[in-house]
Specification:
mainly alpha, rod-shaped, phosphorelay sensor kinase activity, HisK_dim/P_sf
Length: 98
């Protein structure tokens, strides 16, 4: 094996490794985004129903109070999820750089 072919095989190995790391990073990112999508849609659906109940019920009713509790709880959960996910998204973005 001459110097040129040795250099080319090392270069190709480096490219293969980079491609594999990029593929893994993109797969991890896609999985994270799928989880985000699922959880956000579920939370937003719950918030939407609670807002409809709140609008339909008299202000002092038990149903209106329960709807307010649901909205507050879902808002806390969404805040916690975003605080958990944003650092992961940032790490995935950095990992996916070539």
């Amino acid at each position: 094996m001459n110097e040129t072919s040795t250099f080319e095989s090392v270069e190709q190995g480096d490219l293969d490794g980079r491609c594999r790391r990029l593929e893994l990073a993109l797969r991890d990112r896609d999985e994270l985004l799928a989880r985000l999508d699922h959880d956000l849609r579920n939370r937003l659906g719950t918030l939407s129903v609670a807002a409809d109940v709140l609008e339909a019920m008299p202000p002092g009713s038990a149903a209106a109070g329960e709807a307010r509790e649901v909205i507050a709880r879902q808002a806390r959960i969404l805040t916690a999820r975003l605080n958990e996910w944003l650092p992961q998204l940032d790490r995935e973005r950095l990992r996916a750089r070539p």
